[in-house]
Amino acid sequence: MYDNKELVKIANRILDVLSILQKNRWLEILNSLANFSGQLKDTASQSKKLGISLTHNWFFAAKRCRTSIGRSLDDMQYSIQKAKQFINVKVPELPKLSVLIDELNGLQLEFGNIDFNREDNTLSVVTEPITLEDVYLGPFRIQLNISKLSEIYKDRAYYIIALDPNPAATDDSVTHPHVSSERLCEGDGTVSIRTSLEQGRICDFFNISKNILNTYSPDSPYVPLSEWDGSPCYDCGYICSSDNHYYCSFCDHDYCEECSSYCPKCDETVCLGCGGQCPHCEEFTCPNCMSHCAECGQLCCISCLEDDLCPNCIEEKENENEEQQDNITETETIAKSDQSKSGNTEIKLAS
Amino acid sequence: MRILYINNAGSGWADYIDVPQSQTVEELFREKMPGRKPDDFLIRVNRQPVAKDQILKENDRVTITPLKIEGAII
């Protein structure tokens, strides 16, 4: 527990950065307006070009101008929204030093212990070990970087660090369904976190962050808790996420990338056990696209079968046909020569 | 009687509001969060946990923070 003297020092540091943040808020308005006026200029210039293009019936150039104007209008909309976001909302008053000291006292009361790192200028609390839907995720340190408080419109000022990490099987950087690379996806807490930091409500900021960590939103996690430990490939047992699983409809099991392939004939995913290589074209083929040769019974892909015959049997048949043809031709030749010989004899006899 | 009311649900706003004399914390909660259960919120008065029948005083600071806030990929 920090005494009052120490808390005054921490509060002073926070107050200094919050006053910079107030100025940055004005600068954000200025930046958005500068962007807006630049985009407006671009639109006016494109509009002039559009007029010239239409005068000369240059419709291709007119089309390009239209695209460019459309882009500028979208950008302008964003800039207006951003500026309005800062202009319409009341500028939070800079908290008094005494209020910040009360905040820090409240924080100590709420979390039991806080940790201030003078060198890194960070203020941290540690949550109780968190378990969501029977998945142990361990305790987390919520670490607020006081120096970064002035940059909250551009970047995060805090990190969520797993102290006894049990990351998702498929991604080491995901230590909580809503934390990736030590960054919390704030979801419904986005605005309240920002507002609490802007107003110097440090205790609220830590409470909101803790409550997000204690909540599981199954609709939008980095990794769903149901797949936290991943699921094994049916063949090799490699743990992989559902995104990297390949379902084989022939055996009704999930496989990893290494243990599955696809049939180039029907594009069906098939595991290495169910599919097979065609002995003729050597392509990996699913059982649906394989068939037995009607002659020899060999299994080969349907592309290699012709009239239900495999290439070997087709060749054999062709050879047989050729042989038969040869035999017929030979017989015919012999017969013809015999005929001509007997004809000569008949002529001799007649003469 | 004026108090500072901070609601960390949704947009998370803080403002001074007028409340009737001798209003309790529970009455304020029911008025501000109709249909919601107090057990689903962290309710603090002047940063301290309080009993639900505590009577509010001038310049009290009341904070209501949901215990369940859904994070999401943005």
Question: What can you see in these coordinates?
Answer:
The complex is a heterodimer of chains A (351) and B (74). Chain A has helices spanning 4-55, 59-88, 97-111, 190-198, 202-213, 311-350, and strands at 114-117, 122-126, 130-132, 135-138, 140-145, 158-162, 174-176, 179-180, 183-184, 231-232, 239-240, 246-248, 253-255, 260-262, 269-271, 276-277, 284-285, 290-292, 299-301. With 351 residues, chain A is α+β, with helices and mostly antiparallel strands. Chain A has a four-stranded antiparallel beta sheet with strand order 1-2-5-6. In chain A, a hairpin with a 2-residue loop joins strand 7 and strand 8 (179-180). In chain A, helix 1 (4-55) packs across helix 3 (97-111), helix 3 runs parallel beside helix 5 and helix 4 packs antiparallel against helix 5 (202-213). Chain B is mostly beta strands and 74 residues long. Chain B has one helix at 25-32, and strands at residues 2-7, 13-18, 41-45, 48-49, 61-66. In chain B, a hairpin with a 5-residue loop joins strand 1 and strand 2. The mean pLDDT of chain B is 90. The interface between A and B is medium-sized, with 38 and 23 residues.
